[in-house]
Amino acid sequence: MTTVAIVGCTHAGTFAATSILREHPDWSVHVFERGDTLSFLSCGIALWVGDHVSDPRKMFYSSPAELEKLGATMHMRTDVTDIDVAGKTLEFRSLETGDSQTLQFDKLVVTTGSRPVVPSIPGIESDRVQLCKNWDNAVQIKERAHDAKSVVVIGAGYIGAELAEQFSTIGVETTLIDAADRVLANNFDKLITDQVEERYRKHGVTLALGEKVTAFTDNADGTVTVTTTGGAYTAQFAVLAVGFLPNTDLVRGQVDTLANGAIITNEYMQASVPYVYAAGDSATVRYNPTGELDYIPLATNAVRQGTLIGLNIDTPTRTYMGTQATSAVQLYDLSLAASGLTQAGADRRGMDVRSTELVEDYRPAFMLSTAPVTSILSWDPQTRLVKGAQFCSTADISGAANTVSVALQAGFTIDMLANVDFLFQPNFDQPVYYVGAVAAKAVADQGA
């Protein structure tokens, strides 16, 4: 019987276990998880803070019991202390009893996820400074938000941006700090982030952009002061959300990784050692807009990669299609969605990419209501290939990012995207759908 060890069980681990047991119900699959829960949808933390969650228990889509029903041997509240990849052995210790054991495996699945970036800053170990990653963090943030009068959020990526929005809507005085000069600087270009920043200011959020945190200081009155290169901000507590790193120390030096520790995998999710597989935040992705390996920790990547492990763990059959890092967020009345490269992202990578911007109402003026959509399409001026797109509106534009994701993955040019057979119906769009319209403008900008 083949024995599989799965280390870590959030999204990638849950889907890997499910997929492996579906394909190979007679295998012995051991799942190791430090916590007592699995499959937590951390993207719901900010929504829970803002009282938009019907039941926090529904933020879990699976459980140890469900995986046990499929045939998995679950080792919850268990710390894997050592992995010998070459020797195919794994040592683990129960966090409940302290007992240690060794497992001999045939296949190893590393789905250990990521850990929050915690910079070396004086005072950062304060109990008034907390992380936003797992269920325990979520419970603590929810409890603090109930009575809090003020908060400082450090990091204006998706997590920090959503937290700041939700805190401000429930009456908590909110400061949002980021070293970048814009909110969501890695996700959207300035034409869109300007609109987001206007919403923050309208809702009383203090934006401390272009400022680096230099110290945290606990005060006698129970508050914490966050000192930056541009000022000092005092609140009842602070939330740190400045990014993630692969949690792969157990196999570092035993399989090939990027400099940050992300495990390099091939198109079948195999690491450099063929009986080792990796997925999710512990692994690389192939970023289709560049064609290069990258590190993009998103639940969508984890789910698809984890599923592929089960399909390939016996015989490599199903190849990984890569990712466009397609994502979306709702901030106040604004819906934002993106897929692929922004202009700023291309510039950081030294790529020759151009962007076309278009602002127009999403449906005809004769309708009783409509709303403007900001569209930004990025494309290669040499090949004319679509490289990415961003959308922003008070209307729901999330489907547009999915549309561009398909086009990008399929290798569409701006000419092809401009001529797709998009529907027209006044309830939904203009005679020329704004995705096609921005592509047509790019064609006109470039010249036929």
From TrEMBL:
Upper lineage: Bacteria, Bacillati, Actinomycetota, Actinomycetes, Bifidobacteriales
Any Pfam family hit: Pyr_redox_2
Gene3D superfamilies: 3.30.390.30, FAD/NAD(P)-binding domain
Cofactor names: FAD
Keywords, in A-Z order: FAD, Flavoprotein, Oxidoreductase, Redox-active center
UniProt-recorded name of the protein: Pyridine nucleotide-disulfide oxidoreductase
Molecular-function GO terms, alphabetical: oxidoreductase activity
Entry-linked InterPro entries: FAD-bd_OxRdtase, FAD/NAD-bd_sf, FAD/NAD-binding_dom, FAD/NAD-linked_Rdtase_dimer_sf
Keyword Nucleotide-binding: no
Chain ranges of the FAD/NAD(P)-binding domain: 3-306
Provenance organism: Bifidobacterium pseudolongum PV8-2
